[in-house]
Specification:
This protein is an alpha/beta fold. It folds into 2 domains: 164 residues, NAD(P)-binding Rossmann-like Domain (Rossmann fold); 118 residues, N-(1-d-carboxylethyl)-l-norvaline Dehydrogenase, domain 2, CATH 1.10.1040.10. 49% of the residues lie in helices and 12% in strands. It has 13 helices and 9 strands. A 6-stranded parallel sheet has the order 3-2-1-4-5-6, sandwiched between helices. β8, α7 and β9 form a beta-alpha-beta unit. The termini are far apart. Bound molecules: NADP nicotinamide-adenine-dinucleotide phosphate (NAP). The site of NADP nicotinamide-adenine-dinucleotide phosphate (NAP) has 25 residues, from α3.
């Protein structure tokens, strides 16, 4: 299998590295080429354009930030009109692994199938530590035979590869899971900020929380970041959580799920970004929920 790997950001780079280590022939492309160049050391061919990567491959893996990045990478004629052939996707299989909405994945499927290529979605749950440990969970929305054909490929990222059904189902599940990241982090930030302001011993509070049914492991993962207000070295930055919150907000509104909580969190995430934390770890939303300088939020 020859793979075009498009997008070597925080997630894409270590994912591509794992595929190289497993012996796949990789043609990698990243808009900022410098972020892909180190993959040469792992025998990848680092390409100047998406077209160069796609033309030399039979399978295309996409790990880009959002829908518009996917479209501008896949369909940009200026970048892709190589060898006089505008339809470089014909006969390829495109595997879309970025977190985008079910509607966006369905749009891409229609558009790509019209070009004579196959398409399916495979978003992932987990971040950099899970990639390093080979423990990403891959949620697949595809035809059954596509799932069977590519399961071994996904096993290079983790051993939990789950087929949800057709395109749109896996991305719906992925958004539903990311909604939990938002809700749990916001809920914990509120309680942590409150107990600190009330002079409650945080370790005693955590001891009770850890023993209760209310506990989620993410609380301890983010506790030190919040206590030290240190959100550097993100695995998952605030800007991407805001992107996902907006996608979920649209999906909830369309599906009759009350989205008032999400709308509030979107405002909180925007404040976090306004304060300069766009590229920081998403737990920086704690700073907007519990600012260092006390502000009255009763209204
Ligand atoms: N980080 C996580 O923990 C995590 C976990 C699960 C899923 N995800 C999802 O996985 C996807 C990738 O995440 P990431 O953390 O790797 O993000 P990232 O580090 O921000 O990388 C984003 C990638 O998209 C490219 N890109 C952005 N805008 C573009 C545009 N207009 N045209 C072409 N390329 C563009 C970037 O290229 P440049 O390098 O040139 O900017 C880079 O390759 C996102 O959908 C994210 O929500 C992330």
């Amino acid at each position: 299998m020859k793979i075009a790997f498009l997008g070597t950001g925080l997630m894409g780079f270590p994912m591509a590295k794992r595929l190289c280590a497993a012996g796949y022939e990789l043609n990698v492309y990243n808009r900022s080429k410098n972020k892909a160049e180190e993959l040469v050391n792992f025998n990848a061919n680092v390409c100047d354009t998406p077209a160069e990567a796609i033309i030399n491959s039979d399978t295309v893996i996409i790990m880009l930030s959002e829908y518009y990045a996917v479209c501008s990478t896949l369909f940009n004629l200026q970048n892709n009109s190589v060898s006089g052939s505008k339809n470089i996707l014909k006969g390829k299989t495109v595997i879309q692994m970025s977190t985008i909405s079910p509607d966006e994945n369905i749009l891409l499927k229609d558009r790509i199938e019209k070009l004579g290529a196959e398409f399916f979605e495979a978003p992932v749950l987990g971040s950099l530590p899970q990639i390093e440990a080979g423990k990403l969970v891959v949620l697949v929305g595809s035809e059954k035979d596509q799932f069977e054909k590519y399961k071994d490929l996904f096993n290079n990222f983790g051993d939990d590869i789950i087929h949800f059904g057709e395109v749109g189902k896996a991305s719906s599940a992925k958004l539903a899971l990311n909604q939990m990241i938002i809700s749990l982090t916001s809920a914990f930030s509120m309680s942590l900020g409150y107990v600190i302001n009330m002079g409650v011993d945080v370790e005693k509070f955590m001891r009770v929380l850890r023993k209760s049914a209310l506990y989620a492991p993410t609380f301890d993962k983010k506790l030190d970041n919040m206590l030290n207000r240190d959100f550097k070295n993100p695995n998952f930055p605030v800007k991407h959580l805001l992107k996902d919150a907006k996608l979920m907000n649209n999906q909830f509104a369309k599906n009759g799920i009350n989205n008032l909580i999400l709308e509030s969190v979107i405002k909180i995430l925007k404040t976090t970004i306004d304060e300069g934390y766009s590229e920081y770890d998403y737990s920086a939303l704690y700073n907007s929920i519990h600012p260092e300088i006390k502000a009255p939020f009763s209204k």
